[in-house]
Amino acid sequence: MTTRRDFVKASTAALxxxxxxxxxxxxxxxxxxxxxxxxxxxxxxxxxxxxxxQIGSLGYKDVEAAGFxxxxxxxxxxxxxxxxxxxxxxxxxxxxxxxxxDSILAFHKELxxxxxxxxxxxxxxxxxxxxKTPEMxxxxxxxxxxxxxxxxxxxxxxxxxxxxxxxxxEFDKIEGGVPFYEMLQxxxxxxxxxxxxxxxxxxxxxxxxxxxxxxxxxxxxxxxxDFVKPATASTNPHDxxxxxxxxxxxxxxxxxxxxxxxxxxxxxxVEQEGFDVPPMESLKIDADYIHKLER
Length: 295
Hints:
By secondary structure, the chain is an alpha/beta fold.
């Protein structure tokens, strides 16, 4: 018969093996440190090539664009090459994609971009100038999802993957459901992927680990950022102060571990939306945090 002591020893050993296996899996994530260039949106227009070289010197390898500041694809490729950076992704909002889809597609096809991500969306019916944009209804989110399927099919035909990037309101509980999960269900996995902004998801009260666990094949890119919680409990995202990775309330260890287990995340991008110290000092703190975490 198995004694109680034998059972406890066997159970403990099994837990240790499982824990070691999970740590080994997490270590395989080992993705290059990427940066969303929105972080240096004030510097790029003044010195595009020089700013990129500074970013490369901090240990970043991949970047995701948020505008090209009137540079041609050949100029962008040259600047990236000189900085030792790989441009793998680019952000465009829903309005831009509807208005300039053909030119955006042609630009990125020439550039060789792997991913084009919709950075934000809006209601089906445009708001007249001067009027406040109303909150999106579940029907607006469903319309947006259907549009994403169309965008994704066209980008896919050109060899470019398409996806959507969340902020906070995708996790609002509105009549008819939660937008983020509605989009997951309504979009076609063949054409639409997701870039999970872990920081904004946490601010919204969602759990990136759980999202990765339940939807492992849909999340292929991650945005990582950190926040300091407000002194008093708040559900207003404006009350959360952006800070460097490791200095806020978000622990990326479990998130990266789950991403490694899921096995579908291809790139991670730091996004620093505000600064208390000089930008390059801030971005160095972020890069060091990820390098240490991934060691």
